[in-house]
Amino acid sequence: MSKIHVTTSVNGDEAEFLAEPEETLLDVLRDHLHLTGAKEGCGTGDCGACTVNLDGRVVCSCLVLAAEAQGREIKTIEGMANGEKLHPLQTKFLEHAALQCGICTPGILVAAKDLLERNADPTETEIRFWLAGNLCRCTGYDKIVRAVQDAAAEMRGA
Amino acid sequence: MLFDSEDPRKMRFEAPTSIDDAVALLAGEGGISRVLAGGTDVLVQLRSGMVEPDLVVDLKRIPGMFDIADEDGGWRIGAAVPAIQMKEHSALAAAWPGVVEAANLIGSTQVHNRATLAGNLCNGSPAADSVPAMIAADAVVRLHGPNGTRDVPVGDIPTGPGKTSLAQGEIVGSVYLPGRPGGSGDAYLRFIPRSEMDIAVVGAGVSLNMDGDTVTSARVALGAVAPTVRLVAEAAAALEGRTIDQAADDLAAAASAACSPIDDKRGTVEFRTRVAGVLAVRAARIAADRAKG
Amino acid sequence: MAFDEYDSENRIFNAVGTRPIRPDGMDKVTGKAMFGADFTMPGMLHGAILRSPHAHAKIVKLDTAKAEALPGVKSVITRADFNDKVSRANADVLENVMAGEKALYDGHAIAAVAATSPLAAKKALRAIEIEYEVLPHVTDVDAAMVPGAPEIRPGEPKVEGYSSNVMSKVEFGHGDLHEGFAAADVVMEKSFKTAATHQGYIEPHAAVGSLTADGRGELWCCTQGHFVARNICSDLLGIQASSLRVMASEIGGGFGGKTTVFVEPVALALSRKAGRPVKVVMSREDVFRATGPTSSSSIDVKIGMKNDGTMTAGQAILRMQGGAFPGSPVGMAAMCAFAPYALDHVQSVGIDVICNRPKQAAYRAPGSPMACFAVESVVDMLCNKLELDPVDTRLMNASKEGTKASYGPTWPRIGLIETLEAAKKSPHYRSELKPGQGRGVSCGFWFNHAGETSVTLALSPDGTVALSVGTPDIGGSRASMCLMAAEELGIPYEKIRTTVVDTASLGYNDVSHGSRVTYASGLATIKAARDAKKKLCGRAAKTWGIDEDAVVWEDGMAKPSGHNAGDHEPLSFDKLCKTMGRTGGPISGHFEATPEGAGVSFATHVVDSEVDRETGATRVLRYTVIQDAGKAIHPAYVEGQFQGGAAQGIGWALNEEYIYGEDGRLQNAGFLDYRIPVASDLPMIETEIVEVPNPGHPYGVRGVGETSICPPLAAIANSVSNAVGVRLTELPMSPPRILKALD
Questions:
Q1: CB contact under 8 A, A37 and C31
Q2: Does B265 reach chain C within 8 Å, measured CB to CB?
């Protein structure tokens, strides 16, 4: 058999799939596991719409081969809310109207969550550079930056 | 998927657990092969159809590939160590801020979490950000091949756009950055049209040893201004024995004179030539400030 | 109140003007929202498209037999699989969707394959045998116009003195230019060029089509207008429009670029031949090479001014290429060029040119940003020369109610002066610049559109409302519709659900373009709500046994009026909904029309920037958008439109461009080298919403989406030119271009 059997963890649940060697983690998440929250905007790591967390670091899932996921821990936008309770970033994105079309939103939320876990009080500049690989064509980033700042403040208990 | 084609040129994916196995796989491959570390270049090539390898060998299951090990006062950096891991290594980041910053200029946060020095080098791009910094740092790579291991200066690896001097079956297993004496410092600057996410239009890496305000020895390397990253002896000579202020004009002129760039979608010959001089001086100032502590 | 009231001036709003959470928000922050590529159907195949590697080539041989024979390949299509009797109106669309005899640009679709996996489809493309005879090509607008240029559609010249690539020439204006320029103290004349830019939406085009041999089909796609997609696709496939049901997915950005079809008819044609549903998703490279960027342009502007700043005359000659097909937005550009100014003597000429590039598609205020760039640059040059304040000078010449616009109409109430006055008072404009920094000011204008619109508003027994619209929500419009329905019905925002319904569920709707949705679907929603209220009043009348016209709707309730006033307890919306099954059956409000009265929108932008004189790199330091929204329904999303338009304009001004090689192939078909602004490129974008009500909308709404991209090109160019002391006349103002200009 030419397909590769992969066992991995997605949002805390064990996941198993058969992947073509050429398939990316993004292909598998979307087409095999039906987790379509990560989007393909470019396929070349230039837009960040496919951002997921792999073993504790955010990556472009279009730049990871599915076979590499063997034994790894993957977290996607689908695992960000806890049941019906949204993550503060999700709430603040809604409150600040930090999305227009919403296609970049999952990737930005996953990337921003990783930022706030590493830096509880990022400056505007730090937020902008951290998210430089997450393209948004609708908002001009203003409301995104404000939403991240506000979520950080809330998470700090400020 | 319902369809499993009988494509004779089906790609194989292997994730060996020893460097010898990786070498054996690559040496035994008759077709096209690619080594996968961070994958940030290889996956783009696969996706675009630029290359259709028969074999992809993932190095990340090999012990030691994610290690940054102290060695003879310097650091041996495993081939799968992502840029971010170097940034988080405080001793390495303090000693070679230019190299570490250069690696952390490649692409986005998401790319810093995957991209490696070894991959940036083996991709063979004259615009690779970490390569001028590594050449300025006099970094040495350890190659593992069918005939054993050998240590080669970084500058000897690229031979042209997309081309390297690696033999069939050879893998970069690690990059060695030497220890830093006091009074030394390095810096890397690049020019891009945006503030992030672009390929360098010009890159300049400078490593200096200083005695007070005077440069005692220097290495200056320029990226994206020639078919390979260029170590510019004339630029180093312009610096040595002088302060940065004294050397600035000659340094800029030497750097510009060393350029033989092309006009392309990222910049013009004129622009690259001129800005190479500007960046060499700016990088030298930062390196000097760092050397002086 | 009357059911046709337009009283935006005096109305006190309850829901409108608040900032509730958008109804589709939860799905979008949790990854559940279904965009174009997220949909699958049982038994679905995957399509791939073969594209021309040549800018201009005759297709000499096209043989698909080997591809068809591959395992897993279920259908292969070429132009022959489309309607050979397509309507004249859609002939160019078909030619663009699938080439006929010639490939007209790098990336032009030639054939397509459907197979059981995306990889199999992609690999099968290589088995298609094709031979080209490469023809001479041209990609520059000025070069394409010259007699003797490579001809894209060989034939007699249509406009005298030019090559056959010049498709048409239009002219607008009034007065006597000679007289106008003679009255000036200074006449400034300058030529400008702008590169083609792409809308750059993050979501590539995607469609899933299922079409059976009996001509019935389903189509799921990301589009700005699924009714238009239905009409075009049915024509291209030769089927009845009403036999095709189109569902609009969530749409990941459009900005005009998703107002036509690309992969949709391909998915349907592949599906018809294979007998299975087919998904076609564009790669990012395909998006850049083969969907519609906007035009590149070449523009000459001449303006006369008196020493006191009074403009005496203006003339603009604009040339735009629209790719390999006629229809560049040069006519609209010519109309917009001098819209902000009251001029007695004005002329603008637009010349439409074709060349070997992809067919242009609308991009946010198509044509206006380029025209604005050229005119507002010359205004800035005059202000500099005469040492005049750029805002005061614009105020002195500003169009206002009663001014005869350069393109014909006389302005009704408009808000240009209000935006300029707000700019003058803004903290930004009053702030001091540091040495080396430059400030730029520009006005901008867009018409705004109304378009054909249908809305249905169905009441439920529990007092909630299902609002069905046919305009895809590209920026939060469902929230605005809910707000307007809530306002009109006097019920909470949360009690309304707005759905963008499929083409079988509602009458025709034009695409979501022209900044029309909040205006037109909003107006339709208000009128549908009024229709529902009228029916509710009828039910109350029936309940009370009085005449219908003796019932009024007040405070969210039906009340007896006139001599019946006070005779009956008012009936609430909830109560009337609850009993409607017994009082005459279900109640829905409807509205279908092409509203008239879309209100134009003007803006004034102010920007500060600085330039690294050694590298030519520009940094935008501060940016302020001031725009007339008429009435902001959901102010947060109005601000978002202001900020997004400014950001796109900043990209256009500084870095974005289609770069073609000598071979006529696109060099930068990806987000790596087509450089849209990233988060770290931009400052916060300050906004001020001016509200000068549009008399043509019940609440005073003007469209806001497009005007915001008109001023930034000129504002940035003026800012950069003032920072470096050299006039920049070509976009993008990339670092190499700026550094060269500094020599």
A1: yes
A2: yes
